[in-house]
Design goal:
The protein has helices spanning 11-62, 82-90, 112-115, and strands spanning 76-77, 128-132, 162-166, 175-178. By secondary structure, the protein is an alpha+beta fold. The protein has a four-stranded antiparallel sheet with strand order 1-2-3-4, covered by helices on one side.
């Protein structure tokens, strides 16, 4: 039986298959990472919109913003205000109402990381900032935003009552939301 083959693959065939698999993996891994980052950005924006909607509902009910958010058109770091924000937007769950929410109402729903006292975006970044529109103005001017995020803000500013964003060590962690 001349020319009969044994049932296995040659070394050259195995190397060719491994090269093709490696090439396909090198194409798919970055795409999966980009999809994950896009999903986390979307989740962050959803969280931010929830908070901004809750602030709008609070203002609609009480006729003013929570007292600790009186500063306007200047970025406000949210981490030091986390418990005040929770008390104002979520109430105190049957306990004595907070001074900022005397009716002990629940405005919207906050992410569990916020309720645990650690406000973060979907990436786990805790550097969150809020900016409020000044009374009587149509928009928050672009110049009110820090230089690091101005490229994400329209030239005419943000025609909303407030904007919320996170700042991280990677551009993928930046997200600006307004409502």
């Amino acid at each position: 039986m001349e020319g009969a083959r044994r049932g296995g693959f040659s070394l050259l065939e195995m190397l060719a298959v491994l090269c093709i698999v490696g090439l396909l993996a090198s194409l798919l891994v970055p795409a999966a990472g980009a999809a994950r980052n896009a999903l986390l950005r979307q989740r962050s924006q959803w969280q931010f919109r929830e908070i901004l909607s809750a602030l709008d509902a609070y203002e609609l009910h009480y006729g003013h913003r929570p007292p600790f958010l009186r500063e306007e058109e200047t970025p406000i770091a949210l981490a030091p205000l986390c418990q005040d924000l929770i008390d104002a937007l979520q109430g105190r769950n049957g306990a004595t109402p907070a001074p900022s929410n005397p009716d002990n109402l629940r405005f919207g729903s906050l992410d569990p990381s916020w309720l645990a006292g650690h406000p973060t975006d979907a990436f786990g970044n805790g550097e969150l900032y809020l900016i409020l529109r000044r009374e009587g103005l149509f928009a928050i001017p672009q110049k009110s935003f820090p230089e690091s995020i101005r490229d994400a803000v329209p030239a005419g500013g943000v025609a909303e009552a407030h904007a919320l964003w996170s700042v991280g060590d990677r551009p993928a962690r930046r997200g600006v939301s307004w409502l």
